[in-house]
């Protein structure tokens, strides 16, 4: 750990284009925080395997590798970050305990501008694999993310309070959302992702906290989802405060044995929610060319808020059938929907 930190400080303060190399081999570390500002661009090249220490007392905050306050950062290489999650997942009681201790995110980027993460593998994270928070101009490409389908809260890439983010050409199989978007996500592009197992690609859950920032400009395009518990979805908490989620596009999505392929859920609740309607206003949502097979009979579920119904929702060329070749069904309430092209299942809104 001391060697990593010493090398980081030297690279960060050197000016110009500096490079920090994690060489071939296996290294065991607990929490590491790499802070800026730096005097120039820094590349962290990962060639070896870095394993997380599984003594949770070694993580004062829920991050393992934490990069913050840096302009011009690249983390790349053929190496692997192994969170050793199987040894600590049993400690995750967040579904039962609202005061639970969050387990560490493997790679956390906070207040990073002009950042890149590419080429690396993330294995068995304790919680999220990659977290992008309060970042500007950040690209994730050609990464491989792996955890078992039953692993808890192991989101592949989670984005929040960030602008101009691209996630592309990556393979993500995990126990939670392959990619998820929290509050304050703006102008985010997700393309050419293979997702599965996992919970699909999700905007939300939104509205859990007071005074959340709006979400706008989300594009999910040319992605394949295989054997996932959900497909593409937007979810907001019932009883939430007012915010907006708008200008969202899900386009050219291939489904292979996906449960619940297309979802807007404004009645979401994981525990103890207020029974009042969600006040997250969803608008300008475009589902286009979504085709494939569903493992559930209900393939399209658009359940919007009775307080602020969904506005300007488009469904174009939706063609989903059950794996068994039986026809699928749909449900839709509190939404103004424009239908174009093929509609399988046929959806009508109340």
Can you offer a commentary on this structure?
This protein has one domain: Pectate Lyase C-like (3 Solenoid), CATH 2.160.20.10. It is built from one helix and 26 strands. The chain has one helix at residues 2-12, and strands at residues 18-22, 26-29, 32-35, 42-46, 49-52, 63-76, 80-82, 105-118, 121-123, 130-133, 136-141, 144-146, 157-160, 163-173, 179-181, 186-195, 201-206, 215-226, 232-237, 243-258, 262-268, 280-294, 298-303, 310-322, 329-333, 335-344. The chain starts with a helix and ends in a 6-residue tail after the last strand. It is found in: Secreted, Cell wall. Keywords: Cell wall, Cell wall biogenesis/degradation, Glycosidase, Hydrolase, Secreted. The active site is at 199.
């Amino acid at each position: 750990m001391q060697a990593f930190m010493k090398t980081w400080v030297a690279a960060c303060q050197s000016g110009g284009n500096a490079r920090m190399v994690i060489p071939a081999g296996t290294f065991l570390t607990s929490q590491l925080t790499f802070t800026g500002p730096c005097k120039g661009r820094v590349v962290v090249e990962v060639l070896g395997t870095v394993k997380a220490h599984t003594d949770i007392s070694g993580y004062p905050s829920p991050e393992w590798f934490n990069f913050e306050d840096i302009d011009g950062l690249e983390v790349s290489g053929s190496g692997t970050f192994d969170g050793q999650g199987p040894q600590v997942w049993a400690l995750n009681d967040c579904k039962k305990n609202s005061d639970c201790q969050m387990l560490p995110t493997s790679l956390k980027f906070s207040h990073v501008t002009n950042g890149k993460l590419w080429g690396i593998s993330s294995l068995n994270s304790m919680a999220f694999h990659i977290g992008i928070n309060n970042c500007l101009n950040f690209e994730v490409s050609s990464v491989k993310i792996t955890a078992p389908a039953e692993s808890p809260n192991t989101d592949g890439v989670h984005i929040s309070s960030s602008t101009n983010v691209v996630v592309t050409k990556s393979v993500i199989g995990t126990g939670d959302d392959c990619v998820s978007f929290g509050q304050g996500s703006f102008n985010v592009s997700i393309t050419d992702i293979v997702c599965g197992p996992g919970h699909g690609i999700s905007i939300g859950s939104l509205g859990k906290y007071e005074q959340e920032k709006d979400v706008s400009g989300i594009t999910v395009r040319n992605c394949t989802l295989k054997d996932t518990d959900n497909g593409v979805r937007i979810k907001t908490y019932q009883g939430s405060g007012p915010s907006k989620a708008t200008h969202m596009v899900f386009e050219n999505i291939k489904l292979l044995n996906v449960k619940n392929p297309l979802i807007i859920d404004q009645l979401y609740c994981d525990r103890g929610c207020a029974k009042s309607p969600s006040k997250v206003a969803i608008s300008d949502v475009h589902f286009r060319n979504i085709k494939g097979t569903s493992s559930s009979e209900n393939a399209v579920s658009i359940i919007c808020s009775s307080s602020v119904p969904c506005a300007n929702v488009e469904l174009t060329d939706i063609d989903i059938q059950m794996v068994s070749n039986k026809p699928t069904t749909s449900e839709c309430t509190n939404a103004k929907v424009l239908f174009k092209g093929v509609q399988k299942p046929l959806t009508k809104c109340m």
